[in-house]
Design goal:
The chain has helices at about 40-45, 55-75, 110-130; strands at about 25-35, 80-90, 95-105, 140, 145-150, 155. The chain has about 160 residues and is an alpha+beta fold. The protein has a single domain (about 25-150), classed as Molybdopterin cofactor biosynthesis C (MoaC) domain (Alpha-Beta Plaits), CATH 3.30.70.640. It is elongated and about 55 Å long. The two termini are about 15 Å apart.
Length: about 160
């Protein structure tokens, strides 16, 4: 892996990296986020008793949509033909909802940003739908857990 930043041109100005010479490979990225809240807020999400509707269903769709639109909101991301997006939720304890996003493609560049965007927007959607009853919710940490495929090789958080 190189320490050289590739998103700058010879004038030291931002540019989108040219991936035209890269090989097409299967690429998968997994990101995680979480949102912490009052126990009664999480209980109401679990029971489907939030006024705005089914929080997890809406957050799941928002996460999928966000992954598909990542290239439109992150300036140097390439538009990618995503082949799979999965958003999953887990009730970690009485105050924490974990969100995992898996994004797949077969292409010349990875889908790390799409996975990170997906879980971030899913968490923001949970916040939006529950803020009337709990303004003290905290989002994060958000992190890339793994990525496979591509020239830089595989990454799995916690492995050296």
């Amino acid at each position: 892996m190189t320490d050289q930043l590739t998103h700058f041109n010879e004038q030291n100005r931002a540019r989108m990296v040219d991936v035209s010479e890269k090989d097409v490979t299967k690429r998968v990225a997994v990101a995680e986020s979480q949102i912490s809240m009052k126990p009664e807020t999480l209980a109401r999400i679990r029971e489907g008793r939030i006024e705005k509707g089914d929080v997890l269903a809406v957050a799941q769709v928002a996460g999928v949509m966000a992954a598909k639109k990542t290239w439109e909101i992150i300036p140097m991301c390439h538009p990618l033909p995503l082949t799979g997006i999965d958003i999953q939720f887990a009730f970690e304890d009485e105050t924490t909802l974990a969100i995992t996003g898996t994004v797949k493609t077969t292409g010349k560049t990875g889908v790390e940003m799409e996975a990170l965007t997906a879980v971030s927007v899913a968490a923001l959607t949970v916040y939006d739908m529950c803020k009337a009853m709990d303004k003290e919710m905290i989002i994060g940490p958000t992190s890339l857990q793994s990525k496979t495929g591509g020239k830089s090789g595989d990454f799995h958080r916690g492995e050296k």
